[in-house]
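Why show two proteins at once? Because comparison is the fastest way to build intuition. When a single record is shown, students tend to memorize it. When two are placed side by side, the eye starts asking what differs. So, the first record is below.
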Amino acid sequence: METAAAQWTASPDGRPRRRAGRWLAALLLVGVSVVMGCRVADTDGVTPVPQLLAFLPWLLVPTGCALLLSLLGRWWTGLFWGVVVLGLLAWFIEPYGTSDQPGGRPLASFRVLTSNVEFGQATDALVAAVRRERPDLVFVQECEYTCDAALGQALGAAYPHRVARVAAGSAGSVVLSRFPLEPAEGVDGAMAMPGATADVEGHAVRLQLAHPMPPLPGRIDRWRRELDGLRDFAAEAGRAPLILAGDFNASQDHAAFRRLLDTGLRDAARLTGHDRTPTWPARTAPTLGAQIDHVLLSADFSAATTRFLDLPDTDHRALLTDVTLHARR
């Protein structure tokens, strides 16, 4: 009995079908190859490349379709092309960044939570999560005036220390802490990115909230510039223990984010084996999405566990991680 593929190619109109299949395979491969070319060249390119890079593992789907169409259409050049693209995808899907843990003696262990509450809509859900999980440090993005007031009222006693730059819409941010905080200069951006220094059991730890602009069409340069600002901050932080956490609007597949990791920071999700777990959009995660929310740690920290919390009324999953500060050797 003839296979479906043989019937498809051997039918009277098989030649036009093969030609159409080849054209479709070529279009799919061109699109994926443009994105992969930017990945190989270590650049984020222009719209729509940054947006597609966020979903790089999902480019396996059009690549697989192109391979099937090339096979059915007996287009051997396309088949070879598809195999090369598939190999590149497999290579770059591998985790990026260092995964080694510090070897010095432990000094203090604590819990960090970061959450984008989407214009303050998920404030009540965040309060419930904080009461349940009891993190020691809480980084909150998109915390507008009512969010800030609600956090102060509900969590002020448990978290007496805070730094905040409150603003309307998505521009406001707050850091809550059980540890004493000293306000520090933040990083410039369209949305607030405040900073502080925490006294963690007698050890100074620099805290920096991250919330650069998303890579929207027409705003790619600003998105890249703000991520570069975070990279410059991390590079200039020197040898002080540092936690840089928030909604980065970027994944490990973006060159601008990889440059941030190249300063020596480690991604807590990577350290705990969750480097591809999506945090956005929450509606389709964990099945489909991108990891754009991160807790980045200097080499002074180890990470024991990382969990992703699904909060209602926000398009981001919250990220909760247990970390330990170690003495330097």
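Second record. Ask yourself what differs from the first in the token line.
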Amino acid sequence: MSRPAAIPVADRVHARRWIVLAILSGSLLLIAMDTTILNVAFPSLVADLQPGAVEQLWIIDAYALALSGLLVTAGALGDRWGRKKLLLYGFGLFALASLAAVFATEAWQVIAARALLGVGGAAIMPATLSILRHVFADPRERAFAYAVWSAVMGGGMALGPVVGGLLVQEHGWTSAFLLNVPIALAVIIFGAWLLPESYAPRAGSWDWTGVVQSVVGMVALAAGIKQLGKSGLGSPLAWCLLLLAAIVLTLFVRRQLRLTVPLLQVRLFAHRAFSVSAVALFLGMVALGAVLFLLTQWFQYAQGYSPLQAGLHVLPAPLALVATSLLAPTLMRKMPVRHVMGTGLVLMAAGLALPFLAQDSNDQLGYPVMAAALALLGFGSGLAMTVASVTLMAATPSEHVSGAAAIEETCYELGAAMGVASLGSLAGALYRNNLPDSVTGPARDSVGEGAYAAQELGGAPGASLLSQVAQAFTQGMTPAFAAGAALTLLAAAAVWAWIPRDLRPTENAEH
């Protein structure tokens, strides 16, 4: 009796493609939430472990520095070693690092755990997009898969404070890390079973010099941007770090251009659709990162909401983002890409400008105005960033997809950090400028310090101080939002000027 013919590997992969999308989306949701969940858990962590001021900065920054520094290397390593394998090892490290944070009793242990979480995240994030590109051969289906990816990424970042608020309120700060463990283990189990392996084999030896240059350059760049956000434009350390980043990354780019088989194909930026999409992603994240950073403070300190209430009040943005992310592929089939992406960026600008334009004569903002602004921001970012992601990946030859994924993730990470550093610093400077001279001491440093001082003062004097602090922060926040609107309009102008009229990523053949 003859044995049934074996099902070809390609057919098995095609049949499982939606299951693969579900697994990768679940894994990405974990990573996305982890970028913002610490914002809610941090006060509880500080109260428990009592880290010093420098240790607090490292607890916050260790994750982003490790992640930003290793994205390019991880993308190239996945091509050689196997993207599935790298993703599963990344989740294994993610689970172990989370457990280490749960059982930490000293601040340095949390810092080390956060750094390891960043290493795990760098292994995971480029692999998700690379595997999607391998699994979805049809351009239309691939565009929808990227849309789901973008919805999960943006929605997860905004949902982090909500989930974190629920967990921390009931179980303390360690629960924010413990949440990672069962999800990571589930991804490892189902991923080992159902995810396909894929490679992009490259001849030649591993470029260790390029690895060192990319890691040092990207860590210096991320650290310099973050230092600007903390210490302002007058910080010598920030400018030294940025100068180091400029020198090392210039050497890295020149080396990659000389190599026959580079660690990162920097010539991808010669493609207008690729480079403009990367700029749109970066500038969009500058605005979105600043909004999430500033609104979390505004809701908690100026409006007096709990962390959970603050997270819930931000929900119009992720809900709108998810809706338009999933709608974007359909619009891309019916309209030129540049119109869809440009319209999304204009909607983002409208959402950012609305609070500045809608303040009353006493510089007060009601929640209906802020909810409308958040909805516009979500609608716009869902459209613009999904279309930018699809366009960027469609403009990339299949053998360079991991490098493109690393570039896209870097735009997300550095864009959010730059938003906090630039627009967050602008809001802080305007806050201090708008405070009455009668407000002195730590209350002038930040809205958080001002709210704490008002609480300590208590009674009518405390209420008066809190009102002054809240008004000054609102007066500083809304012009920063308006500056973000100008950046997104600049990105929209670049999209309409430089993306080809006939570009249709959902129709183009595979490179």
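One difference worth noting in the second protein: The CA atoms of residues 96 and 181 lie 8 Å apart.
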